[in-house]
Amino acid sequence: KPQSWEARAETYSLYGFTDMPSLHQRGTVVVTHGEGPYIVDVNGRRYLDANSGLWNMVAGFDHKGLIDAAKAQYERFPGYHAFFGRMSDQTVMLSEKLVEVSPFDSGRVFYTNSGSEANDTMVKMLWFLHAAEGKPQKRKILTRWNAYHGVTAVSASMTGKPYNSVFGLPLPGFVHLTCPHYWRYGEEGETEEQFVARLARELEETIQREGADTIAGFFAEPVMGAGGVIPPAKGYFQAILPILRKYDIPVISDEVICGFGRTGNTWGCVTYDFTPDAIISSKNLTAGFFPMGAVILGPELSKRLETAIEAIEEFPHGFTASGHPVGCAIALKAIDVVMNEGLAENVRRLAPRFEERLKHIAERPNIGEYRGIGFMWALEAVKDKASKTPFDGNLSVSERIANTCTDLGLICRPLGQSVVLCPPFILTEAQMDEMFDKLEKALDKVFAEVA
Length: 451
Ligand code: PLP
Fold this sequence. Notes:
Aspartate aminotransferase family protein, 2 domains, 15 strands, alpha/beta, Aspartate Aminotransferase, domain 1, four-stranded mixed sheet, Aspartate Aminotransferase, domain 2
C-alpha cells in the first residue's frame, strides 16, 4: 500500500481536468484546510489561492459566518427536497431573495446541484416551453467558441472547446459562434467596431441559415471565464442583443463565474449593460460552501413557463437535492456577506490596483495581452509580442508558470497560453502584493528558460 498522501491520491483517485505530464512532474497538492485566501497542504505548506478554489470560494476558506449558517441549518433541518409541492422554508426565502437581487422586476427560481446542471435545466426548460407552445422544432442552442458552460452531455455540447471531441461531442444542434476576443480574433487592419459588426453579421447569417424557428436559445457568459478570461469586445452585447430579439431567441446569461460580485457588480450583465431573459447561477451563489446551482427566470419566461406547466400539469424535472435547505441557508448568508459585508465593495476598490500591477507586468516582451475586469484577469504569454505568435504548445509555458508559482506558494491557473488570476474577494492589498511578487518571479524564471 502506498504511504504518502500524494501517492495514495495518485493510486486511488481518477483526476479530472488535470494535465497528467504536469502532475507526474509536480505531484498532487493534498489540501487539509484553509485560512482566509490561503490553502494549507498535508505538509503544512501555505499557498495563496489566486483561483478562489475554482472561482467559487469568494469569501475565502474559513468564513465564520458561513460556517455558522451551515451549522445552524444542519441542526434545524439537515435535508429536504423540492418535489410534490413541498419545499423547505429556506428554499422559499432564497427564491424570494434571488428574484429581489436579480435584474428582473419579477421572476421564478429553479435549483440544481451545479452550474452544468443549471445550464442543462435551462435547455430542457426551453425545449419544454417551445414544444408546449407548438414549436417542438425550436431546439438548437447557440453559444460561442471558447465558452465554458459545463461538463454534462448538454452543457459540454454548449461549451466551445475542441477537447470535447474525445467524447464525440457536441451533440447535433449545438451551434458555436466566433469568440468576441478582439485582440486574438480581430483581423489584420480591422477596428474593434468592425470586428463587433462582423460578429453581429455572423450571428444574423447563422440564424437565417439554421432557421430562426429551429433555435431554442442563445447562452453567453458576460466575461468568458474558463475560456481564458475574455471580456467581450466593446459594444458586443449591444450589437447582438437586437438581432436575438428580432428573431425571438431567448437570451441566457451564464453568470456562474460573473455573478455575485466577480466583475464588481451583482451581475456581469449589469456590468456589460444588457438584460437577459434568464440567469444561470452557481459557484459564488454559496461562496463555494455548498454545491448548488440556480436558474433565475425573468418575467417573460416565468409567465410562459407557468402557462406551459399548467397546461401539461407538471414540469417533470428536478434533482433529489434541488433547493437543499442547507445550501439555501448558506446561499442566503453568502449573498448577504458578498453584498453587505464589503466583499463586492473590496472588488470595486481594488480592481484599479489589480489592473495597474498587471499593466506593469505586461510590459514584458513575452506578455501579449493583459485583460479582465473586477477580480478576474488573465495574462497571455506570447513568443513574439508584435505578431502575437504563441509559444510552441509543447513548451507548456502557462503550465510551467503555474507550476513555478505553486513551488513559490501561489496557486494560479494555466488556461491555453494564459495565466488566470481570480482571487477571493477578501484579498487585502498586502495579499495582492504577495500574489504579484510571486507571479513576477515565476514569469521571469520561465521566460528566461523558454524565450
Ligand atoms: N458555467 C460557467 C460559466 C462555468 O464557469 C462553469 C464552471 O466552471 C459551469 C457553468 C459549470 O459549473 P459546474 O462545474 O458547477 O458544473
